[in-house]
Amino acid sequence: MSTLLVTADGRLRFGGLDFRCALGRGGCRPEADKREGDGATPLGLYPLRQVLYRPDRFAAPPQTRLPLAPLTPADGWCDDPAEAAYNRPVTLPHAGSHERLWRDDGLYDVILVPGHNDDPPIPGLGSAIFVHVAKPDYAPTEGCVALALPDLLLLLQAVSPRSLLEIRAA
Predict the structure, then answer these.
(1) Interstrand relation of 28-30 and 41-53 (parallel, antiparallel or unpaired)
(2) What is the pTM of this model?
(3) Model pLDDT for residues 15-50, shown as the tens digit of each residue
(4) How far apart are CA 71 and CA 37, in angstroms?
């Protein structure tokens, strides 16, 4: 089994790959201490669930061995702990609080979805933790891991359904 290692100093390593990454504005916290809206990246070990992408931004789908699905403007992700759909994909419009996955800024052009708080989701322990495209200045995220688009696309080619994401403090 191969592991993508993310460290709190803003590095992601996998095999011979070594990339700069952005992490949460709230730093990194143990998974048990993660709370909705705290901006923290959860420490822990997570399976890789799927890849989502904006088909209008790519000539061909990203190359990966992971399950791959195109996004539509109606795609969202519920981040409302009071909703039954908490930390699950939703179709917009959606009454509860949610992330819009079809964004103009390009940050969600490609999303790697790790299995954080999803089996089953526990309300309030964090939602919508993704590996996605970083801002040009690698500004902190809301708790996600973010990579430059070329790095993310290269990583997706290298991982397999058996790969894991490990986020470590050091």
Answers:
(1) parallel
(2) 0.97
(3) 999 999 999 999 999 999 999 999 999 999 999 999
(4) 24
